[in-house]
Amino acid sequence: GAGVSQSPRYKVAKRGQDVALRCDPISGHVSLFWYQQALGQGPEFLTYFQNEAQLDKSGLPSDRFFAERPEGSVSTLKIQRTQQEDSAVYLCASSLGLAGKGTEAFFGQGTRLTVV
Amino acid sequence: QQQVKQSPQSLIVQKGGISIINCAYENTAFDYFPWYQQFPGKGPALLIAIRPDVSEKKEGRFTISFNKSAKQFSLHIMDSQPGDSATYFCAASPIKAAGNKLTFGGGTRVLVKP
After folding, report:
1. B51–A31 C-beta distance less than 8 A
2. B43 CB near a chain A CB, below 8 Å?
3. pLDDT in tens, B53-93
4. Which of A96, B31, B34, B78 is most buried, with most CB under 10 Å away?
5. Which of B34, B46, B105 sits opposite A42 (nearest CB)?
């Protein structure tokens, strides 16, 4: 596609419900990132994939958060037993992922998750 | 922990004026410093980026100034236009690492008055 696509754009979940957020990166992009952006704040890193390998998950806030990219393209971020503090915009970004080069990260429009 | 500190949180500038946003970082491993522009309901979009081997980079009305010894960098928006009204984020990453994980500042909301 022309850009990074995320779905759904908006998700309202009841506290305790499980949610799954989808990211379609730009075709051919090796690197894929998930970020969490709380209201009025900068994005914060959650996890990073290089193809299908999850190389860094240091930003995942708890074991309720799980991400996968099984075929090295589409990625899913899953949040189990959602809590109110999980309410945020979840951004996906992809890049060519060439080590040693400042390749541009392209962001999707994000999924706004509201936990009620 | 906030490894990239950004100021001010917001600013108002008249059309044609200069907007200046400052950032400071702590991690000396950072060597790639991009600025992102974000409109409401949209994802961040890369505006301009700099590496520490240069002290200034200019693209159109946007200029990054970089001070490696002070570990500070800033964005100047010249001849600000109402369409520049957005939130701006500085960021930093260690370029040598694969993946270029970005650490963002807290953001500056810019309002350009016509």
Report:
1. no
2. yes
3. 899 999 999 999 999 999 999 999 999 999 999 999 999 99
4. B34
5. B105
